[in-house]
Amino acid sequence: MPNTPNTLHTARLKNNCPICFATDGLEVIFTQEETETAFFKKPAKKMEEKMYCHTCQNAIYPVNWTEDIERVFDYNKKIAETNKAYLKVKPLFYISVVMAIVLVAAVVYILIPT
Ligand SMILES: [Zn+2]
Predict the structure, then answer these.
(1) pLDDT, tens only, 27-58
(2) pTM of the model
(3) Which residues have C-beta under 5 Å from ligand 1, the single-atom ion?
């Protein structure tokens, strides 16, 4: 089963980068892995969160975050939470359910003496 990361929410921050101090480079990225089968897409329970600075091209780890970054991060995390993916059923699932009902109906029809 292939696992595909699904981006839930990204945001550019105006905070100073703790490494290069640029004010326009920081970006937070929230992703969630998705396992896909023929019948449904099953998202992982846990969200992955990343902070990246486009100016100095460094990943910014929580140890380097300032209070301001933490505040903005928490705010964006709430937005990402509302975008969280849930179990998605694909059309093939409904088709097989309908097929099963039709099959049962056919068997019942044949077995019931007229
Ligand atoms: Zn930077």
Answers:
(1) 999 999 999 899 999 998 889 999 999 999 99
(2) 0.76
(3) 17, 19-20, 25, 53, 55-56
